[in-house]
Amino acid sequence: MNAQRTRSRTLWQTGSRIDRTADRTGGAGRGGGAAALQPSERRRLTARRWARRAGRRMRRAWRAATRAVTPVGWFVLAVVVAGSVAGFGPSWVEGWFVAVVGAVLLLIALPFLLGSRRYRTAIEPNRRNVVVGGELRVEVLVENASARPQLPAVAELPVGEALRELTVPLLGPHERTRLTAVVAAPRRGVIRVGPLTLARQDPLGLLRREVTWRDRHLLHVHPPTAALPPHSAGLVRDLEGRPSRRLTEADLSFHAVREYAHGDALRHVHWKSTAKTGTLMVRQFEESQTARVAVLFDALREEYASDDEFELGVSVAASLSVQAVREGRERFVASAWAPGRIRPSIDGLEELPSRDPVELLDAWAELGSTEEGLPFEVLARSLADSGRPLSIVALITGSRPDMLRLRRASAAFPPDVQVLAVRCEWLAEPRAQRLTPLTLVTVGALGDLPRLMLRSGQ
């Protein structure tokens, strides 16, 4: 009996909970309380949902349509509206004629936009850098990524300040094509290539449909440089340096053996050779030397008489610094010009990266003139006060600074530092002068630099 009473009580409590839940949710199966949605209400809610979806699609279609209309297309559309108003109002036949012609032109332009925009593209330059006066070839790869043919389109490739237009032919399913653009490099700098835009438009330019990719490339146009002869200027003895042709009695790089001379240290006696020849023989070594070079370029535009003179200075500085990199010398290459992406240094010396010749020439390609930098005398003083162990310093400037300023800049360095001042004067007579405490070289053309370096002994 107790078990039956417990089971009856449980069933009664469960039924009560079910009834209360049904009352709260509307009682779908019963007619009392909050009744279920009527068919008219369900149709009204469904219509609202469809209206919202249709509205979103219409807004997207309207935005796409307005983006596809060019300024010429908007003008033709305005002519159609004006012609229709003139035809309805004053009943001008000419208005109807203009409206019909404009509408026909818009209808004819529509088929040129058909087709999907499923492309795969890539920009592939054959080189990342070139010397002034050379050319670069940029290949544009376009692939149809859809399973349907793609109508012809126009590929627009920004190259520096210009815009190259390349014609993309009719592409079958998953077919690809390569388009080539030749990029000329008439002057030093950085050429920005990309992003690529594929566009379709009608011959009259009324409607236009385009898609753009983010692929971009930077092409560096290096300044022309002169091949300088190997030289030993500024070399100082350093056990961590490289072996040279100079022979010495004590060093790390063994060269040969020779007969003993009075005053030679006995610790350098080569006993095997002594035993073979019966004569006392000593070791001879190649002296380890290194040069710590600083190339300081004056980037102030007011110090140069013309743009050609400034570019000559860049080429001279690039030639000297690249030669130091190729010879494996310790170097510090700096100027007063700071790229906009970095914060200028306190002492005004902006070092150029010089881990290898290509990186250094890329930096020279990016360098520009400045109007608010420090004078090169102040930069020379900052370089001398920096505590860098230098053996030779090259100061490159224009034709405007006088001799007093050059002497003041060179006087900032200790006497054991060789100072080479290079004045770049466009089409001037080349000459080299030894003026204490510096060597002054006047360069009128880049081809004069190797001969002047030999004459000055640098």
Topology readout:
Layout: H1 2-25, H2 39-68, H3 71-88, H4 93-109, E1 119-125, E2 129-131, E3 135-144, E4 153-159, E5 162-168, E6 176-184, E7 189-193, E8 197-201, E9 208-212, E10 217-222, E11 235-248, E12 253-259, H5 271-277, E13 281-297, H6 307-326, E14 330-335, E15 350-351, H7 357-366, H8 376-385, E16 392-397, H9 403-410, E17 418-424, E18 431-435, E19 438-443, H10 449-456
Parallel strand pairs: 2-10, 13-14, 13-16, 16-17, 17-19
Antiparallel strand pairs: 1-3, 3-6, 4-5, 4-8, 7-10, 8-9, 11-13, 12-13, 14-15, 18-19
Q: Which key terms come to mind for this protein?
A:
33% helix, 458 residues, 10 helices, disordered N terminus, four-stranded antiparallel β-sheet, alpha/beta, elongated
% residues in beta strands: 25-35%
User: What is the CATH fold-level name of the largest domain?
Assistant: Rossmann fold
Helix content: 25-40%
Q: How is the main sheet built?
A: 9 strands, mixed
Task: Count every helix, treating DSSP H or I runs of 4 or more residues as helices.
Answer: 10
End-to-end Cα distance, whole Å, is 121 Å
What is the arithmetic mean of pLDDT? 82
Order of helices and strands: HHHHEEEEEEEEEEEEHEHEEHHEHEEEH
Name the shape in a single word: elongated
Provide the low-confidence segments as ranges.
Answer: 1-35, 232-241
CATH class of the largest domain, named Alpha Beta
In the CATH classification, which architecture of the largest domain applies?
3-Layer(aba) Sandwich
Structural class: alpha/beta
Whole-number count of domains? 4
Transmembrane segments: 68-89, 95-114
Keywords: Membrane, Transmembrane, Transmembrane helix
Domain DUF58: 257-329
Protein name: DUF58 domain-containing protein
